[in-house]
Amino acid sequence: MTHFAPTVHMLFCLCLAAPSLVFADSPLSAKSNYLEIKRDAAGEPILVVSYPWARHQRPSVEVRLIEEAAEEKNARPLFFVSEYMKGTNRVAMYRCEELSESLPASTEFTKDEVDFTVLGRRNILGKPSVMVLCRSRSPGPRQGTRAVFALLEAWSVNNKMLFLELPREAFAPPGRFEVVFYRDENIVWTETVDWPGYLQ
After folding, report:
1. Exposed (0-12), middle (13-18) or buried (19+): which is 3, by Cβ within 10 Å?
2. Residue 49 three-state SS
3. pLDDT in tens, 69-109
4. Is 158 helix (H, G, I), strand (E, B) or coil?
5. Less crowded by CB within 10 Å, the N or C end of the chain?
6. 21-80 pLDDT per residue, tens
7. Can you list the positions of beta strands (E) in 102-185?
8. What is the pLDDT of residues 151-193, one digit of tens each?
9. Are 130 and 151 in contact, with CB atoms under 8 Å apart?
10. Cα-based angle 141, 144, 145 (whole degrees, multiple of 5)
């Protein structure tokens, strides 16, 4: 992760000391709640979220790739925390986050015809973190590709701002996302955003 160390310092310091500098080029900075795409020093995209996530009980963020196929039109939010983050799955998430202190870690499970891959790694803030990649090709409301961020403390700059890195293995090409913000099992905010894709 030494490649990202200068980026971590730059983004983190700017957001704490002078948030207006980070978003001075965006009209969204006038809004209290918003999301947008910014790039790190290497040119890679980061999903930046301004939202008081810490006020909510069991907050989480779900990012779904919007696909144009007709069978995907019925896709709905997954409600990962309330439906799947239980028992051994919950333990596995915390374990992967813990292991990512020193090395990337992962584990997999399947339920309701959805394949879940728990990915633990150090993020752009230099913190051990975990995300869950969710994929299903079975027709129905769970169909599609999603990334879920359910342990948000590791992705936070402060109690109102998150820097989210999407898994390259599923979100490399450009596209459009639906981003869903949860308080436990309740949806509190939904927005769409254009994704530029990762550099080749």
Report:
1. exposed
2. strand
3. 555 667 888 999 999 999 999 999 999 999 999 999 999 99
4. strand
5. C
6. 233 334 444 467 889 999 988 899 999 999 999 999 899 999 998 876 555 667 888 999
7. 105-111, 114-122, 128-136, 144-149, 156-158, 161-164, 175-183
8. 999 999 999 999 999 999 999 999 999 999 999 999 999 999 9
9. yes
10. 135
The answer to whether the beta carbons of residues 81 and 150 sit under 8 Å apart is yes
Q: Closest Cα to residue 108, out of 119, 98, 116?
A: 116
Q: Which residue in the block uniquely carries the two structure tokens 């990012």?
A: 63
The pair of three-digit structure tokens given for residue 192, joined into one six-digit string: 């769409």
* Residues found in the chain: 200
Question: Quick check: 169 and 176 in contact, CB under 8 A?
Answer: no
Instruction: Provide the token pair at 102.
Output: 């020193």
Q: Please report, as a single letter, which amino acid is at residue 154.
A: A
